[in-house]
Structure formats: C-alpha cells, structure tokens
C-alpha cells in the first residue's frame, strides 16, 4: 500500500501512526505541495487536492480518518477499532469530533504561528488567533473533562480516537498552543507520546525535514 503524505501534515501523521501501531507496512511517498507538477498528480488521485491519500492496488482512499478505519479493518485481531456496535460508535464519535472541531482549531494556531512564517505568508492574524483561543477553551475543556477519570479517550485501551485526536497536537510547540490549563489532556498526550507509533513518526518527521 502506498500513502501520499508530508511530514508537516497532522492528517497524514495520524494515518502513518495507525499503520505503525497495526504493524502494516506502508510505502510512504512524500508529496511536495509547493510543486505544481506534484499537485497535478495529487489532483488526479484526490479531487480535493489534499493529502493523505492511500492507494491500495486499484483502490484509492482519501480522508485521513476513513483511511485509519480502513487500515484497522484490514488487520485481523486489532484492538484499536472495536467491532462491538456501541464501542465502535464511541470511537467514531471522537474521530468525527476531532475532524470537525478539535483539529481545525489547532490548525489555526499552527498556520498563524508557524506555517505562515515558514512559507513567508505574513504575520499571525490576531483575529484568527482569538477565534482559535475561544474554540480551544471550549474543546480542550471538553476533552480535559472527559479525560479526568480515564487513561484513553474511548473504552479502556488505546483506540483510533486517541491517534486521531493526538496527531494535530504535534503542532502544540511550533504553533504555540496554550495547553497549560488542561492537565488531564496533557497527561493523556504524554501517554500517547510514549507510544512507539508516536516516536517512530516523530523520527521520520525529523529525518524528512532534515
Ligand atoms: N479532511 C482531510 C483534510 C486533509 C488536509 O487538509 N490536508 C492538508 C495537509 S494537513 C492538505 O493537503 N492541504 C493542501 C491544500 O489545502 O492545498 C483529511 O482528514 O484527510
């Protein structure tokens, strides 16, 4: 299986972490979003022109959370995406929450405080940062409260929900996301950062950027 990705994309990283955790070999293809030629190729496999994109034989799949679920469903005996109806619905709930609320809010900090400077797109916009802060207070508050009495987001062990929600947090330092008040969230994130899947993708990220 081939995955088109870029190391600064947290949407790609949540897929790469999932593959590592499941022990599935992925052929990683670095896609340079600043190259017109490479974007043309991307458009041919994803009409939204976004990474990640998985190619599994003649099957092409885009949308990071859908790819994570596909990889888990392909893996016999896996425990990160439960088969039981309500357990699966709960994992789905948090994955949608991440895609709809949590990740887009973190992405504003990442874009304004880090990516803009990297690509020369101007100074951080204070109005956008205030909007992100308002959303952070709401959604980080929700997650922090949820994690007050639990080690993992859904059920009693690691699931795709943890990997989906944690990936955008790779932006916490470069994006200067003010997470200090959310102590349960931070403790959970430290647990995720101890996973091989997190460490190995961090290493790849450093190697690819170097
Ligand atoms: N909902 C999509 C979002 C994908 C996405 O926004 N990818 C970004 C990188 S993190 C991208 O390819 N951006 C390129 C662009 O918009 O030009 C997913 O979860 O896969």
From TrEMBL:
InterPro entries the UniProt entry points to: Glutathione-S-Trfase_C-like, Glutathione-S-Trfase_C_sf, Glutathione_S-Trfase, Glutathione_S-Trfase_N, GST_C, Thioredoxin-like_sf
Chain ranges of the GST C-terminal domain: 84-210
Pfam families, A to Z: GST_C, GST_N_3
Domain GST N-terminal: 1-79
Protein's recorded name: Glutathione S-transferase family protein
Lineage: Bacteria, Pseudomonadati, Pseudomonadota, Betaproteobacteria, Burkholderiales
